[in-house]
């Protein structure tokens, strides 16, 4: 592995700002880099559907070994603050100056994929057909993978390089998530002169919350009230309040039950106070779960063994492109890329881990 090249390319990539919906500048650079590696690259139309200034990049590299095609996937978009990222390398650790994210999430994944493949090419190692998908708008709702044109995809398995934590960690199952947005309409009145004429929407919302089972529901299910807003002044009975909630579960039926319970608590509270509640329920992403002996996991295990990485299967509490790929019939697992403190200005990754990740990608290709 070419350490200097890996680090300098990573530095180049993190310096190109690519927040969700604005991945075009970065996509342009990646497309060129993929083409230099011998990929045929198309930009799909997911951008129009998601509201981004580019679509997903779908790259195809023809193989010279008779095995099924495999996909590597990472996302191009990042969370904020991501303008003018100034990476610093100190004692083998790459971090930002402290005023922005580093964007190792998910540019480390992208580097691992491209450098792993570059190693395979440079050393003339035989490989099957390889697809590389770099998605948009992962951070804001997995829109890239949701709107990906699957008619262009040949692979039946996908290695998604996007998990926080040590290399060796592999997310083999993850929860489904549902988002709930509720708007409570009460009735305004003067809080001092005639409060009895009003219906306090904040009170209705709080009664609903009070009746809800929240946070850890069971070992597979969670629920949370994340945002609450309402009211205008202390001397007015609040006629409006709204809240945003979510629930997650590794079992779809448990998720449905929890969501029904939350909706019921809000409807009952509204009824009790004579208020009105409008509830919007959105299924954000489905659950995924891979069998212990799923072929993709065997490839990962073999690839890790060869380069002395300890395989650690995990259950994640979050959602990623992996959830969507699995629901579309592409068996996918999320691999740890060695990044830590993602989504914060304290995000960092080790230089050694960037190299190890590239090695892992090369080893996966060789092990298949
Ligand atoms: Zn990510």
Description of the molecule:
This protein is an alpha+beta fold and 368 residues long. The chain has two domains: 252 residues, Zn peptidases (Aminopeptidase, 3-Layer(aba) Sandwich); 110 residues, 2-Layer Sandwich (Alpha-Beta Plaits). Helices cover 33% and strands 28% of the residues. The chain contains ten helices and 17 strands. The strands form two sheets. Strands 1, 2, 3, 4, 5, 6, 7, 8, 14, 15, 16 and 17 form a twelve-stranded mixed sheet that branches. It has a five-stranded antiparallel sheet with strand order 10-11-12-9-13, covered by helices on one side. A hairpin with a 2-residue loop joins strand 4 and strand 5. The longest helix has 22 residues. The protein is elongated. The chain starts with a helix and ends with a helix. Zinc ion (ZN) binds next to helix 4.
Précis, in short:
The chain has 368 residues and is an alpha+beta fold. The protein has helices at residues 3-15, 24-36, 46-50, 104-122, 143-146, 201-210, 252-273, 295-306, 321-327, 351-367, and strands at 40-43, 57-61, 70-75, 88-90, 93-95, 130-135, 157-164, 169-174, 176-185, 215-218, 221-230, 240-249, 276-285, 288-289, 312-315, 331-340, 348-350.
Question: What is the topology?
Answer:
Layout: H1 3-15, H2 24-36, E1 40-43, H3 46-50, E2 57-61, E3 70-75, E4 88-90, E5 93-95, H4 104-122, E6 130-135, H5 143-146, E7 157-164, E8 169-174, E9 176-185, H6 201-210, E10 215-218, E11 221-230, E12 240-249, H7 252-273, E13 276-285, E14 288-289, H8 295-306, E15 312-315, H9 321-327, E16 331-340, E17 348-350, H10 351-367
Parallel strand pairs: 3-6, 3-7, 7-16, 8-15
Antiparallel strand pairs: 1-2, 2-6, 4-5, 5-17, 8-14, 8-16, 9-12, 9-13, 10-11, 11-12, 16-17
The structure holds zinc ion (ZN).
């Amino acid at each position: 592995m070419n350490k200097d090249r890996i680090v300098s390319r990573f530095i180049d990539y993190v310096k190109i700002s690519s927040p969700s919906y604005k991945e075009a500048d970065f996509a342009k650079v990646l497309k060129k880099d993929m083409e230099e590696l011998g990929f045929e690259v198309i930009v799909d139309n997911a951008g129009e559907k998601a509201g981004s200034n580019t679509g997903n990049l779908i790259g195809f590299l023809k193989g010279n070994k008779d095995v099924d095609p495999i996909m590597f996937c990472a996302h191009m978009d990042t969370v904020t603050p991501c303008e003018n990222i100034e990476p610093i390398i100190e004692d083998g650790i790459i971090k930002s100056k402290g005023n922005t994210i580093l964007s190792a999430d998910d540019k480390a994944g992208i580097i691992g994929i491209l450098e792993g493949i570059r190693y395979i090419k440079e050393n003339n190692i035989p490989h099957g057909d390889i697809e590389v998908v770099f998605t948009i708008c992962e951070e804001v709702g997995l829109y890239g993978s949701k709107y990906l044109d699957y008619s262009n995809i040949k692979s039946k398995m996908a290695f998604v390089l996007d998990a926080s934590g040590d290399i060796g960690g592999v997310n083999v199952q993850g929860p489904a998530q549902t988002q709930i947005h509720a708007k409570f309409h009460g009735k305004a009145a003067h809080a001092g002169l005639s409060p009895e004429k009003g219906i306090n929407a904040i009170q209705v919302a709080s009664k609903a919350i009070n009746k809800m089972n929240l946070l850890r529901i069971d070992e597979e299910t969670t629920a949370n009230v994340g945002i609450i807003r309402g009211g205008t002044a202390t001397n007015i009975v609040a006629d409006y309040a709204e809240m945003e909630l979510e629930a997650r579960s590794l079992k779809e039926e448990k998720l449905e039950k929890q969501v029904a319970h939350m909706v019921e608590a809000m409807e009952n509270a509204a009824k009790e106070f004579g208020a009105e509640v409008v509830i919007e329920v959105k299924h954000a992403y489905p659950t995924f779960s891979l069998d212990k002996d799923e072929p993709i996991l065997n490839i990962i295990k073999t690839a890790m063994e060869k380069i002395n990485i300890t395989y650690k299967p995990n259950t994640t509490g979050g959602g990623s492109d992996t959830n969507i790929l699995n629901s579309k019939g592409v068996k996918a697992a999320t691999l740890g890329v060695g990044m830590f403190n993602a989504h914060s200005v304290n995000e960092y990754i080790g230089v050694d881990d960037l190299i190890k990740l590239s090695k892992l990608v090369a080893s996966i290709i060789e092990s298949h």
